[in-house]
Amino acid sequence: MKSTSQSMIRWVSRTAVLFALTLVIQLLGLPQFITGPLVNAFLLLATMVVGVSSGMVIGLFTPWVAFSRGILPAPMGPMIPFIMLGNVTIVIVFFLITTRRENNIGFLGLGIVIGSIAKYLVLSQSVAFLVSVPPPVAKMMQFPQLITALVGGVIAIVIKQALGRTNFFKNQS
User: Fold this and answer.
1) Which of 27, 77, 138, 140 is the most buried (most CB within 10 A)?
2) What is the mean pLDDT of residues 40-61?
3) More confident residue, 45 or 76
4) For position 131, which CATH number holds?
5) In this structure, how many other beta carbons lie within 10 angstroms of the beta carbon of residue 128?
6) Looking at the predicted structure, is the pLDDT value of residue 1 above 60?
7) Rounded Cα distance, 65 and 61, in Å
8) Which domain holds residue 41?
9) Tens-place pLDDT, residues 53-102
10) Residue 173 predicted with pLDDT over 60
11) TM spans, by residue (predicted)?
């Protein structure tokens, strides 16, 4: 049986690597329709590979880092708590649907679709009812978020399947 400290070290190191990769994607300054799916992919990949808490931690920190580095424009500042909530929502919904079914492609797909819709609802309803942002920002927080979450989910599954064909998951327990 592995010790708790070994498990914690593994969790921290894998979460840190996935968080670093997510930050690199954000710092490249690519368009939303490239960056968004990749960030969502890393949130879901962290959830699948490391655990729900890893996906949540990455999802909570990425909006703040993006804002502090100027990647997230100032008019989107009021959206940060809702982006965080949207990220945590997709992670938790995905996790709940796929728990103990992580090798079932149907449940992975279902988790992605329902998780993406839940994230979309959090973000679109926040700009509709809770936060006053300029119309272009409001538009960015609506339908494009659904698309980027869905595409990110597909990317995450492809990466996980590729990792599964390597020795990545051996000695994970």
Assistant:
1) 140
2) 97
3) 45
4) 1.10.1760
5) 11
6) no
7) 6
8) 4-164
9) 999 999 999 999 888 887 788 888 999 999 999 999 999 999 999 998 87
10) no
11) 12-30, 42-67, 79-98, 105-123, 143-163
Which value, in Å, is the radius of gyration of the alpha carbons in the chain?
16
- The reply to whether 172 falls in a domain is no
Rounded to an integer, the average pLDDT of 5-27 is 93
Domain membership of residue 173 (yes or no) is no
C-alpha separations of 41 from 19, 48, 99, 124, 153 in Å? 12, 10, 18, 20, 5
Residue 64 included in any domain: yes
Q: What is the phi/psi pair of residue 67, to 5°?
A: -70, -45
Residue that the structure tokens 């990455």 belong to: 58
Both structure tokens of 67: 């804002």
Specify the DSSP class assigned to residue 47.
H
Collect all residues with Cβ–Cβ distance below 8 Å to 122 and sequence separation of at least 6: 82, 85, 86, 89
Domain count across the chain: 1
